[in-house]
């Protein structure tokens, strides 16, 4: 199932990307004026801390920020907008996992020039795998993120002290980012879980097949 999910995500990544909201053109111009070197410096800090928000004070000291605002001819609110827009750009790239060509087309549509598009591709090619692993290991639902699952079967047999034969129970042990979690399932609950997973798999298969047919139709 994991491999099918990966293929599905790859298919979805080839669709049209919306990396920034409409109306961000003015801020994009300021980002271009930053130059590739400073943009890469900011981007690396953003990606290292993703999904957390980066404070501009963590990247540049007061003197550097004043010089930056002077060079770009911007005030404090615009400075904040520049950094938030860069963060938004990387967040959308990280979550959409785009292929190279759709990424370049979207960046060009937004208004980034050749130098900045090259810088963005360079940063993502160097940091993309690490960032993807970071996000994969985070639970955004507030529930523990499962890393591995183990299981055992338990059944008590009848004895002179306990003549009633107990039904079999399955013990699932979830290795999560918050420690080990033990769940005991009766046969009925285990069958219910299995059927639920089967339905999820069927839905993924239908979505994957539909997207593959759509891609073939565009060729």
From TrEMBL:
**Top-level taxonomic group:** Eukaryota
The record places domain COMM at 145-208
Entry protein name: Bm2873
Lineage here is: Eukaryota, Metazoa, Ecdysozoa, Nematoda, Chromadorea
């Amino acid at each position: 199932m994991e491999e099918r999910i990966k293929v599905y995500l790859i298919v979805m990544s080839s669709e049209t990307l919306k990396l920034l909201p409409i109306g961000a053109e003015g801020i994009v111009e300021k980002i271009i004026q930053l130059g590739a070197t400073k943009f890469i410096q900011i981007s690396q800090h953003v990606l290292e801390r993703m999904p957390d928000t980066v404070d501009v004070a963590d990247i540049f000291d007061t003197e550097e920020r004043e010089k930056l605002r002077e060079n770009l001819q911007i005030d404090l609110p615009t400075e904040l907008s520049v950094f938030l827009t860069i963060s938004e750009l990387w967040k959308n790239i990280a979550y959409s996992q785009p292929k190279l060509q759709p990424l370049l087309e979207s960046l060009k549509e937004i208004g980034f020039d050749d130098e900045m598009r090259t810088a963005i591709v360079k940063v993502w090619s160097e940091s993309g795998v690490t960032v993807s692993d970071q996000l994969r290991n985070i639970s955004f639902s507030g529930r523990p993120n499962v890393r591995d699952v183990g299981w055992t079967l338990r059944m008590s047999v009848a004895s002179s002290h306990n003549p009633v034969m107990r039904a079999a129970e399955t013990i699932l042990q979830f290795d999560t980012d918050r420690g080990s979690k033990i769940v005991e399932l009766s046969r009925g609950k285990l069958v219910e879980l299995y059927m639920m997973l089967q339905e999820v798999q069927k839905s993924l298969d239908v979505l994957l097949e539909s997207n593959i047919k759509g891609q073939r139709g565009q060729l």
